[in-house]
Amino acid sequence: ASEWQAYAALQFRCGRYNQARQSSQNAIAAGGDRRQNLRAIAQILLITQNFQSLLETAGTILELDPRDRAALRLQQIAYAALGNSAAAAQIAEKLREYQ
To answer: Domain residues of the chain, as ranges?
Structure first.
């Protein structure tokens, strides 16, 4: 799994986002840290402005840890980008509660 993670990091740095995403998925399949690799995938989705998939990936991270502040922020960004300001505001309130 660590080889896939290293390869994903290299691909990410080279701007090969699809390959990096696939390598992170391979790392999960090989038993790598699911949350860490999902966060890497979420970064790629944010950079490539794939907001619907970002919303879903952040949701998966939150299933693993409901108080993951980074995942909540990513979800907030995705909702705002998709035009759902009410959901983005609800997440902002959650983030304030967690401080």
So the answer is: 2-98
pLDDT in 10s for each residue of the chain, 99 residues = 899 999 999 999 999 999 999 999 999 999 999 999 999 999 999 999 999 999 999 999 999 999 999 999 999 999 999 999 999 999 999 999 988
pTM higher than the cut 0.85? yes
CA distance 22 to 35: 15
What angle separates helix 69-81 from helix 34-47, to the nearest 10 degrees?
A: 30
Q: Which CATH class is domain 2-98?
A: mainly alpha
